[in-house]
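The instructor's notes for this session suggest beginning with a concrete chain rather than abstract definitions. Hand out the sequence below and ask the class to guess, before any prediction is shown, which regions might be ordered.
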Amino acid sequence: MSYNSLKIGKYTIEKPIVQGGMGVGISWDKLAGTVSKEGGLGVISAVGTGYYENKSHAKKLVSERPLDAANFYSKEGFDAIIKNARKICGDKPLAANILYAINDYGRVVTDACESGIDIIITGAGLPTNMPEFTADYPDVALVPIVSSAKALKIICKRWQKRYNRLPDAVVLEGPKSGGHQGFTYEQCTQEENQLENLVKPVVEEAALWGDIPVIAAGGIWDKNDIDAMMELGARGVQMGTRFIGTHECDAHDNFKQVLLDAKEQDIELMASPVGYPARGVRTHLTELVEKREGPAIKCISNCVAPCNRGVEAKEVGFCIADRLSDAYHGNIETGLFFSGTNGYRLTEIISVKELLEKLTQGE
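After discussion, reveal the predicted structure:
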C-alpha cells in the first residue's frame, strides 16, 4: 500500500507519519527537526524545557532542578528548541505536544504559538478550552488526543459552541502506547478498547464533523501495522517508541540502551502521579519504588496539576518530573524510561531517514 499525504489544517505532511511527543527531552530539536525535514511530522515535547542546553534556560534552580512550572516549562528553553528544530527542517510543518494536565497549560500553548509552531497536539485530559489560547494565531492547527468516539464528540461540541472551530485532526491513542494511558488498568486490556476496535467508531464520529482526519496511535510498529490502520479509515499514524531507536533522537545513549536491552516482560503498566496508568520499562527504580525506597520526593518543579503539589507523587512513590529528567540525563539507577508495548522489538539504532523509508516502503 502506498500512502497519501496527510492534511492537518493548512499544512501538508508528505509522509502520513507523526512522531509522538516524548518528554523530558526525548523528542526535542534534533529528532523533531529531522522527522519534519524527512517528510514526516516532527513533534517537540513541551515537557521539561527548563532542562534544555544544560538548564541554561531555567532562571531558578533548586538542587539542580528547575524551580516551579515557570522554569520547568521554560519559555526561553521551548523557544530555543523550536528555533533549533527550524534550522534543521526549514519551513516544513513542525508540531509541539503540550499535555493538558500540566501546570501553566495556557501559557505554554501561547509560548509555542509565539515561537512559530505550526501544529499543537494535546492529550492527558480533554482539552475543551484549547482554542482559547490560540485565538490570536488562527493558522496554528489544533489536534486533540482522544481514546474514544465519545471524547471526540464532547470536544467537537464544546469547540464549535464556544469558539466556532473544530479540531484540524485528531489523534486516537489506544492502550499500547508508551507513557500515560487514557484508560484505567482494567480498560487497557479490554477487547473493545484495543486500537483496531476504536478506529472505525472514531472515524465515523470524525466524519460527522466535516471529515476530521484521524491519526491512529499506540502500539504501531511497522508498515503492516500502518497498512492495517489505513484500511480501517485512519489518514495517518503516530509513533513514539520506534523513533527512540534513531541516531537523531535526543534521548541519552543510556536511554536507548535500556530499550535495546528490554525484554517483552520488562515493559509494564505502573501507577503515576498524573492519575492515569503509565507504561514503561521495569528497572532498578521500579523495584525501589515498590519497596518505598525510591529517591526523595520534593516537588521542586510542580509539573502536573493532578499531582497536587507532590501529594500523588508521595502516594505512588516517585516524582515524575525528577525521574523523567534523570532518564534524559542517562541515569539508569533513578531514571524512568517510558516505552510502548513494542519497545522490546528495538534491536538497532538507525537514522530517521532510514526508519521513514522502512515504514513507508516496508522492511
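Then share the key points. Residues 221 and 265 are 17 Å apart (CA to CA). The radius of gyration is 19 Å.
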